[in-house]
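Protein of interest.
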Amino acid sequence: MSLFKHVSELDRFESIQKASLASYAAALECLAQHAVEVDAAFAEKHRESLRAIRVHVMRAEGPEALREIQPVLESELRDYHDKCGLRIKGLRQEMASALVSLQEVMNSFCSSGRGEEVNLKNELRTLERLASDEDVGALRRGVQSAVVTIAECVEQIKRENEIVVAQFRDEIRTMQTRMEAVEAGAAIDGVAGALKRGEFENRVRRVIHLEEPVCLVIVKIGNYRDLRSRHGQFLATEALAGFCGRIREEFGDAADIGRWNDNAFVVILASNKQDALKRTRDLGKRMAGAYVCVEDGHRHTLHLKATIGIVDFDASEDSSRFLAKAEGLCQTMV
């Protein structure tokens, strides 16, 4: 009995060890998935490093090997933290520089034409003096001279203002480009490459104001949680990315595809519901099936189940009701 008890204890310790390693690996995968994307290139390299560390964790053969991994992980996290800090500092400096440039443009705009203003005032005073002069010839000559001078001043002011306005436009374009780059990085889900839900909903709100037919096509993985439980987070995530890629193939690169939740994507379709139903006929069959994923050099085949749902926008609705309708349908889909 004592021997059986020891064997049972050993089995229990082995189960705890395996569960601990799996939890460690899952934590690393979560770190990779949810890394803050201050810079897309930094984030992708960081994810690759974390996943490489995850491979070492899964291959560790003893406590010493795990202890050696800890400083490597700490170094990677610290390095990524420092890189993000420097990038944020750089963005702040760029913004400050852009604001200084805009201030200079505004100052130039305010100061442009001051010399011409003096000339104009002088000519106005000359005209005032001439107005009281009874010599018609002198009045005519004075007015002709003033007209020429005023015309030259106006042209000069116009040229200066055109230069300032052009500079102002350049600065605005530069700032807009930088802001769009930052917003674009923040709007994309790092796991699947689809739009994050907040950005997707913003695009839906813009589309419904175009007064054209709009449908939302919901594509849901029915067995995602089961796959994640059976195969682990990493393989489930790989299958999810492949699933999103297949949606992109179906609807084209220009389509707005958003990640609605853990296991569902939504596509904006500019058509009425009848046409949307025709276009998505048999889409569930095309999306479902085998997805081959690779982990630690080993190929795994995950079989995904897909269900399709469609909601169309009604003119009597606002964006909140439309999105709520999509959420309601998604919750009821198997």
Q: What stands out?
A: Residues 95 and 103 are 12 Å apart (CA to CA). Residues 197-332 form a domain with the Alpha-Beta Plaits fold (CATH 3.30.70.270).
